[in-house]
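Tutorial handout. Part one gives the primary structure; part two gives the three-dimensional structure as tokens.
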Amino acid sequence: MLLNVSYNNKEITHKIDAEVGKPFTLKERWAMGGIGSPKLFITEASLEIRNLLILDNNLDSCNVEIRPKGIIVRFRSLLETFALVIPFYKLTIYKGDFAVYSIYRDHYFIKVRSDTKAIQKFFKKLLNYKADTAPTSIEDL
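Part two.
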């Protein structure tokens, strides 16, 4: 779900909280070693996101926030902030070409450069958290 989150709107906040859960408490954030990504530079995006990004001449960047049941990818365009809300059951992450991660939800996708160790460490933390919170599969029983 792609939303404009520039303004404090209770309906949008409730939609996001229903989809990916309420934000972690400060104690949980500290225990996890942080829940936010470093600045990620966008190399490619799906049509709807690309149409928003080309409206201004700034460098395309985003960040990712981990929530209890998913992630939120935030990016800015024309002084507006947009969020791509992705629950874990719809999240797919690919490590593609050299130093590129692809984040997918249905027909939306964002490809980001991962040329630093901090970014690779964040994606490893994200994938481990996703695996830890996944429901038990039939093969594990």
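Part three, for discussion. The chain has a mean pLDDT of 91. The chain has four helices and eight strands.
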